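> call design_seq(struct)
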């Protein structure tokens, strides 16, 4: 689409392609959500979307993406990619920012279908959007966060060089839960070999980035 070039944006890694999802991709991502994202009883998300029955999880996954597209502006955007491994959608990786032109700060969030976990895909997905943020968009900081019992997410952040950035206490399904904030400054990031960004230039205004920045 000439007037919405974000659909052509891709980030590739040695194993993965991250792309803005087509309708077919969204259908497949909904299937991953329906199949399951975590063990029963585990609560990795503040908003309890995974508590819904499988069809509800699939629908909310698709609706979330439509909502991001409709609300996108250069001042506040959320860019959710699907991660594709060997031609199959395995999960989603978000990069988001508010007033990026001023703050040069992004945040990330992700999930992977449960049957694809444990293969290092989460680290590779996060690295891909950090490459986009730091090397493509000129970000100076990336933030993330995980509840204290989400050891897998915290391990990914640690592996990529994030620093502790304080804690927050949230109401998670009626109980207090500690969220660990994490921050990665630009000078602690080094892009791994084999990572590439495709068709970013036409998208820069959508991210609030000047072509001369």
């Amino acid at each position: 689409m000439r007037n919405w070039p974000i659909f052509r944006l891709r980030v590739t890694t040695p194993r993965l392609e991250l792309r803005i999802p087509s309708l077919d991709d969204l259908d497949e991502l909904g299937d991953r959500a329906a199949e399951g994202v975590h063990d029963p009883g585990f609560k990795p998300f503040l908003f309890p979307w995974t508590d819904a029955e499988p069809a509800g999880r699939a629908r909310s996954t698709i609706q979330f993406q439509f909502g991001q597209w409709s609300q996108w502006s250069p001042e506040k955007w959320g860019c959710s990619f699907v991660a594709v491994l060997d031609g199959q959608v395995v999960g989603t990786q978000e990069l988001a920012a508010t007033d990026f032109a001023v703050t040069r700060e992004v945040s990330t969030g992700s999930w992977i279908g449960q049957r694809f976990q444990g293969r290092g895909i989460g680290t590779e997905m996060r690295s891909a959007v950090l490459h986009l943020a730091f090397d493509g968009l000129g970000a100076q900081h990336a933030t993330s966060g995980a509840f204290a019992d989400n050891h897998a997410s915290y391990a990914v952040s640690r592996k990529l060089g994030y620093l502790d950035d304080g804690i927050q206490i949230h109401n998670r399904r009626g109980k207090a839960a500690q969220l660990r904030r994490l921050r990665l400054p630009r000078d602690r990031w080094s892009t791994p070999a084999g990572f590439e960004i495709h068709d970013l230039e036409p998208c820069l205004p959508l991210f609030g980035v000047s072509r001369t920045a």
